[in-house]
Amino acid sequence: AQLSYTLSPSEHFTLDVKSPDENRKSLFMILSKPLDRETVPVHRLVLTASDGGRPSLTGAMELLISVLDVNDNIPQFNQSVYKVKLPEDALEGTLVSRVNAADPDLGPYGAVIYEIDTIAPASGSDLFNIDANSGEIRLTGALDYEAVTFYELNIKAKDKGLPPLLGHCSVELEVLDVNDNAPEVWVTSLSVPVSEDASVGTVVALLSVSDRDSGANGRVQCSVWPTSPFGLETRFLGSYSLVLREALDRERVSEYEVEVRAEDGGKPPLRASRGVRVPVCDVNDNAPAFSQAVYTVLARENEAAGAELARVWARDPDEAGNGRVSYSLWEGVSGASVSGGGWRPASSYVSFEVRAVDAGEPPLVGNATVQLFVVDENDNAPVLLPPAGGGPGLDPFAGGVVGGSVEAASDAGSETLWAWAAWGAPAGQVVAKIRAVDADSGYNAWLRYEVLEPRGKGPFRVGLYSGEVSTARALEEADGPRQRLVIVVRDHGEPSRSATATLSVSLVEGGEKVLAVGGSSSSGLVLPAEGGAAAGSASASTNVWLVVGICAVSSVFVLALVLYGASRWAPRSAVLSGPAPATLVCASEVGSWSYSQRQSRSLCVADGAGKSDLMVFSPNLPPPPSVPAAKDTSQAEPSSLLDT
Questions:
Q1: Who contacts 343 (Cβ-Cβ below 8 Å, separation ≥6)?
Q2: 129-167: pLDDT as tens digits
Q3: Which of the 8 DSSP states describes residue 619?
Q4: Which sequence ranges are marked TM in the entry (predicted)?
Q5: How far is CA 252 from CA 57, 224, 399, in A?
């Protein structure tokens, strides 16, 4: 009846037997080691009782011990650190990572809730969100590699025990760069305007270039457009100099719009540009230039003082004072300019130089030659010339004796000339020559002679252009003792101007009488130029002298013939003639030209005022002995024009 107790082996439980007295024993199961439900949730033990008999008898029972759960386990993450990489252009809602924590406890003690504990840097607190039940972390904002390249998220997992137990892990997010930033260009220094004479290599501007991306995305190449006349130079990373590569010319391009272009090395590349306005500053590098090197100016004579003859213009492409032009006449001989207040001889203005000077420093000069041609106007009437010698005597071109004095005549005046002709003189015999000159030139000085009175067919005629008065037919006694001719001399101007001369021709008997009268006249006889009574008296006096002096005349007849021949063939003081090469000269104000029809002759006038521009006609010279004299000595056109 003595019982003993034994318990199956167990590391957690032991059996404690207490005997308050001999008849009774108390059994206690003692927990000798803490239980762990997560290790052994149920313990199975066998308790055996044995008595003291021989053989001993036993009795046994099974003890089933269930361990109740308590919140004694914290949540455990499968990784302590989660490493993630995302491009910076990841869209909102992108899954960053999924964390997982386990809690072996049962029921609410094993239920885990996820939370983001901290985020570094703090600026990312709005960029991430975690699902409390699933542990998924997603983006709620945009990443920016250029702002933050790395984020660290501390995640906690807690159960629902009281108090709850916590587990922790970290998520490390590396942001990857994408080419989402275009290069940036800044002008840090600008030196404008640039002088057009600036040397090659002059720095116009300093520029700074950068790209916030990294690696190839941040490597920038720069260029300039247009490629000339500027270029880029770099000595430091991200720093460029805009320099002058070619010489400038403000007159060609006064301002440049330069574009600096930057391009990164991304795929695809991003580009940026910056415009730089570069004005060019003028220097005085252009002399005034006339539109013509030589100006030909036609000016009418008799222009009033101060009248505008021509207008010249010089262009200077420089600006402001460098392009402001002033004009002056330049005296090439003395090397000085002539202002409006000075006077010069008119002849010096036939050709002169005009200077154009700008206001630059130093001033530049342009020159042009002005050739001035004075266009003649018909402002001079023909002027009758006195006979050679200025008094009575033989006219070199006349066949008779002329006398009287001649003065200049105008449209309103007339002069009287005297001549003698013998009865029976053949047709074509020259009895006198009317000499006149016109101070004009060209057609304005081309003179023609006409018989004004008597009208109709008279015994005398005048050469249209020679002025020689000759017999139109043989003279007869019926023609009377004296013929009065009114000869008008006209030029070819518009309107024409004229002068008149009255020629009184006395008709005498025989050549000997003419020579006698000529000799007497040469000795000092002056015939009156009065009316008909005076003419009759003169004729009677002449007859008396002829009768009385016939013997004397006979003695000197031979001498008279010699003198007559000498005067006829000797070189004339009034006109010298001779062959000369044909000369091309200006004929009139309209610019026509002509050559001598026969041969050019030099004209020398011994008496009267000289001309600077004469029209020369072929004179009616006596032909050589072997050539018969021409009947009509008038010329239809001027033989040549001589400009002296």
A1: none
A2: 999 999 999 999 999 999 999 999 999 999 998 889 999
A3: -
A4: 544-564
A5: 134, 20, 80
**Angle between the 510-522 and 532-548 helix axes, to the nearest 10 degrees?**
100
Cα distance between residue 478 and residue 101, in whole Å:
170
End-to-end CA separation in angstroms for the chain: 188
Do 352 and 369 touch, CB atoms closer than 8 A? yes
Write out the DSSP string of 322-343: GG-EEEEEEETTTTEEE-TT--
Under the phi-then-psi rule, with left for phi > 0, alpha for psi from -120 to 50, and beta for the rest, what region is 132? alpha
Alpha-carbon distance of 386 to 382, in angstroms, equals 13
Mean pLDDT by runs of 10 across the 644 residues of the chain is 88 87 81 91 94 92 93 92 95 94 91 94 92 94 93 95 92 94 94 94 95 91 91 91 94 93 93 95 94 91 88 93 91 49 57 91 93 89 75 36 33 66 86 91 91 86 92 84 91 92 84 44 32 38 55 65 65 39 36 32 35 39 39 36 32
CA distance 28 to 14: 8
Beta bridge partners of 544: none
Position 348 scores a pLDDT of: 54
Report in angstroms the alpha-carbon separations of 234 from 221, 231, 297.
11, 10, 61
* The pair of three-digit structure tokens given for residue 374, joined into one six-digit string: 């004075």
Those residues with Cβ within 8 angstroms of residue 141's Cβ, 6 or more apart along the chain or in another chain: 92, 126, 127
According to DSSP, the residues that pair with 221 across neighbouring strands are: 263
Q: Specify the DSSP class assigned to residue 385.
A: P
The per-residue b/e assignment along 93-123, b for 16 or more CB within 10 angstroms, e otherwise, is eeebbebbbebbbbeebbbbbbebeebeeee
Amino acid at 325: V
Domains of the chain: 4-66 (2.60.40.60), 76-176 (2.60.40.60), 184-281 (2.60.40.60), 289-375 (2.60.40.60), 383-387+413-506 (2.60.40.60)
Measure the CA–CA gap between 602 and 580, rounded to whole angstroms: 8
C-alpha–C-alpha distance, residues 376 and 441, integer Å: 6
Strand pairing category for 383-384 and 593-594:
unpaired
pLDDT of residue 294: 93
Count CA within 13 A, CB hemisphere, residue 3: 17
Q: Are strands 24-31 and 289-290 parallel, antiparallel or unpaired?
A: unpaired
* pLDDT for 449: 95
